[in-house]
Design a protein that fits this description.
It is a single chain. The chain has no helices and 19 strands. Strand 15 and strand 16 form a beta hairpin.
């Protein structure tokens, strides 16, 4: 396999592919976003403050690129390069994970507030407290039925929330597993990256 590297600048963190074929990455320490065009051209966009700390990126339900910010806002950059942002309901909650849902929603995690949030297609923001108030939710993945899965790093488990935000299922791993990344697989299965050194495949 050939490996091509693009000099986007230090601190590259999240990555997402846009509808036009470009790939975006966040430069967390610089408060910037970098874009690699389909023909390999690199450009950067400075956000409003260096303290914005962009992190996880996701292609949004509207085709724009959305990204979590360390200052308690969710950013959005449209195909024309216009940047905007919306504050979450708990801005001090350490906004982290982000993903788009199939029903034009956007899900996010609040690592320090032990909550999962959702922005609806009408812009309404809801946040749902998790049962364990010290679970430290990290990554999130939307489900086809309008709910989501989230990894709970501190409690070594993953949870599935129903469309209304209620707890539908919880699966625990061995102590010290420290689940981080999560992705949906075929047939309703779930892949979970465990910092302990394993990739778990949860099969219904």
């Amino acid at each position: 396999m050939d490996v091509i590297q693009y000099d986007v600048g230090p601190g590259a963190y999240g990555v997402a592919r846009a509808d036009d074929g470009a790939v975006w990455t966040s430069l967390t320490g610089r408060g910037e976003l970098a874009r690699v065009s389909p023909d390999g051209q690199v450009s950067r966009i400075q956000l409003d403050t260096e303290q914005s700390r962009p992190m996880v990126l996701a292609r949004g339900p509207d085709g724009a690129i959305w990204f979590s910010r360390g200052d308690g806002r969710i950013g959005r950059i449209d195909p024309a390069g216009t940047v905007s942002s919306v504050p979450v309901r708990t801005p001090a909650g350490s906004l982290y994970g982000l993903c788009a849902g199939p029903d034009r929603t956007l899900w996010y995690t609040l690592l320090a507030a032990d909550r999962v949030g959702r922005i609806g297609p009408d812009g309404r923001i809801e946040e749902f407290p998790l049962p364990d108030r010290s679970c430290r939710p990290h990554a999130i993945a939307a489900t086809p039925d309008g709910g989501c899965w989230a990894t709970l790093w501190a409690t070594g488990s993953v949870v599935r929330l129903a469309r209304d935000g209620s707890l539908a299922e919880e699966i625990s791993f061995q102590p010290g597993s420290e689940p981080h990344g999560i992705a949906l697989g075929p047939g309703g299965s779930i892949w979970v990256a465990l910092e302990a050194g394993f990739l778990a495949h949860l099969i219904p």
